[in-house]
Amino acid sequence: MKTLIAIAFRNLMRHKRRTILTGIIISVGLWLYIFMDSVMAGLDRGSIDNMINLTTSAIKIHTEKYDDEKESFPLKYGLQNVDELTLWLKNDNRVSAVAPRTQFIGELSNYEESIPVIGSVVDPVSDKEVFTLTEYLDGNYFSSESTREIILGKELAKDLNVTHGDFITLYALTKYESRNADDFKIVGTFNTTDPNLNKNGVFISFTAANQFLDLENTVTEINVQLKHRINFNDLLADMKEVRASFSSQYPHLVTYTFAELGAGILELVRQKKIWGVFMTLVLLLIAAVGIVNSVLMSVYERIREVGVLRAMGFEGSEIMKMFIFEGAMIGFLGSLVGILLGIATVVVLTTYGYPLEKIYGDMYVDTSGFPMWGTIYGEWNIPLIIGSFLFGLITSILASIPPAKKAAQMEVTQAIRFI
What pTM was computed for the model? Predict the structure, then answer.
């Protein structure tokens, strides 16, 4: 066995350029796959974090009656004992913050035109602990009294030609389904990474809503934020465990995790991963062709050498192993270099990230929640890195079998006389 490996290694060194080029194909293929997987996973995580931190939260809790009519955002089905529920949730060490919200459908008017909006009633203090709206805020947040103050999306403000300090009319149905309208002062606008929120989202405080909507502090949803987890699958597991624990204590309430609230985007992520695997297969297929070509050329160049080895007593199976070792060495070295480059790239991406404005500049792109500014960070995927190495190595070995088999089947006399 040692003799076969030594001969295989010597042959690779005799054709360094061909060996290096074939190895580079494998290395580049695996490096690109690891790099793209990390970047795409980072973009996906950024999109998921946007939804969790701006709209859905990690866990959302409603009453059963509210859930039946949730598309219309009914105000009459509020949660009972909100303080008790909040305290119970905060006692879970996986929970970082809890905030009440009440959503409603309204219409915003600048006295010339009107635009339908989705309003959110928030508690200014606790809402900042769950959601990151203030990070995208231009202007002021709600004051201590927060009466007749409104915050709206920058795109919405642009459409209505209003800005900070202007007054705007908000129409909506109250809790008792009577129509109401009142003027609100715009204290701030926001330009988040969620285009839909920028176009039709408005926020008012519970203090204002109690008067405007006859709300009486009605809370229709409790939003729960969990502690950050580096691995998203761990975060999903935390969501399910917290929900299971909460539901066992309060079975009459409806609880959703991001797995249900963001099912569409999670499916998109899954589909993208499938396409990523497909692209890797294409790259490694190209590498496999290169390995077949390299080993096959080695077979034809060494026909007389093969004949001499057979004449010295080497079995056909040993000749076959020798050529397979050549392909395996190329695959091993190429795969090793590829994953080392990939690991180095992921280290840079996870540590320093990459500023997205370098790609998009100031251009506005509707991306349905994908971050378009700031820094995108990569994600680690250790099973994929290990799997990539094994896949590259196995592909190289399999690609070596056909030409190796051809060498093993050569007749000794014909091989020796070959010119």
Answer: 0.69
